[in-house]
């Protein structure tokens, strides 16, 4: 089903926006893995989102100042969930190869439609269930055959990354439910501000370590701007037009980008299991890349009263 008020053209634009975001996110797996060998995880993330937030506020200060209390409350809640997902993913990435981290993180595609159904009673079309099944098959192909591609996988890193995937599923479902096109920019700022505050509080007791080389500063600026500020705004706007389950399936392409960049830039290995899994994920994405027919969409029934989602 399309998001409330969404039109086919905007649905397609949302899909395109999410695909662009996944390509950017894919570049961050090997980059962050490399940078965390020289910078503490919390320090790297804190500075990244401080820069992201400062940039967005500087570009559109009036939009940020006009944000409603609802937007700040929603953004704060989403930000807390996202920071948990990001921190567990990043710590897991320090223990796993980039392709493994990318594919396991992508398993949130499995949890998203079930979570939406249980939380908001959002019905899912047959085409979306089929696409979810294909995505699951892709992840299973990778998981069951990963040992043949790179040997043993860290159980601690795997557990952290699975937890991260579950938290990302919560974020995707909530964002699709509460994001509105007109509020996308301010809601992005609210989320990033929450990330920056929480991460700075975590990093501050030991002192915040800054990059020591021009290359690391360049990487940090890229993470803060293209992979941070721009990606947050694009995802928030796109999910105002796409329901959670199709959005998660589109974003499951991210591991393919992560694998491609890891292989091209850092010479990590990618075996047949990754290729087979990737083919399934791409097929799943194609299934949900076109707007559903009007008859395919069934209305969702929220568990939260409408008044609880509005400003008092």
TrEMBL record:
Pfam families: EamA
Chief location bin: membrane
Residue stretches spanning the membrane: 12-32, 38-59, 71-94, 100-120, 127-146, 152-173, 185-205, 217-238
Swiss-Prot/TrEMBL keywords: Cell membrane, Membrane, Transmembrane, Transmembrane helix
InterPro entries the record matches: Diverse_Substrate_Transporter, EamA_dom, EmrE-like
Topology term for the membrane: Multi-pass membrane protein
Localization of this protein: Cell membrane
Domain EamA: 14-141, 157-289
Disordered: annotated segments: 291-312
Family indicated by similarity: Belongs to the EamA transporter family.
Name of the protein in question: DMT family transporter
């Amino acid at each position: 089903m399309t998001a409330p008020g969404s039109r086919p053209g905007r649905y397609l634009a949302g899909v395109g926006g999410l695909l662009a975001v996944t390509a950017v996110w894919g570049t961050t797996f090997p980059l962050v893995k490399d940078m965390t060998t020289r910078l503490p995880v919390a320090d790297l993330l804190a500075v990244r989102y401080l820069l992201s937030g400062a940039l967005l506020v500087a570009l559109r200060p009036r939009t940020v100042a006009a944000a409603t209390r609802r937007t700040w409350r929603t953004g704060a809640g989403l930000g807390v969930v996202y920071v948990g997902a990001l921190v567990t993913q990043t710590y897991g990435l320090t223990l796993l190869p980039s392709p493994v981290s990318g594919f396991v993180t992508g398993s949130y595609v499995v949890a998203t439609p079930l979570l939406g159904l249980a939380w908001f009673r959002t019905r899912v079309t047959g085409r979306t269930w089929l696409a979810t099944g294909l995505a699951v098959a892709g992840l299973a192909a990778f998981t069951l055959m990963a040992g043949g591609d790179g040997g043993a996988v860290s159980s601690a890193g795997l557990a952290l990354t699975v937890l991260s995937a579950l938290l990302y599923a919560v974020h995707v479902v909530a964002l699709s439910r509460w994001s509105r096109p007109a509020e996308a920019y301010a809601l992005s700022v609210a989320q990033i501000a929450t990330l920056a505050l929480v991460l700075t509080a975590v990093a501050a007791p030991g002192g915040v370590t800054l990059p020591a080389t021009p290359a690391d500063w360049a990487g940090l600026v890229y993470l803060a701007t293209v992979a941070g500020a721009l990606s947050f705004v694009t995802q928030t706007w796109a999910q105002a037009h796409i329901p959670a389950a199709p959005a998660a399936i589109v974003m499951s392409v991210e591991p393919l980008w992560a694998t491609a960049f890891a292989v091209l830039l850092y010479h990590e290995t990618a075996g047949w299991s990754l290729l087979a899994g990737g083919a399934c994920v791409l097929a799943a994405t194609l299934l949900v890349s076109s707007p559903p027919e009007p008859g395919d969409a069934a209305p969702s029934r929220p568990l939260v009263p409408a008044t609880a989602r509005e400003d008092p």
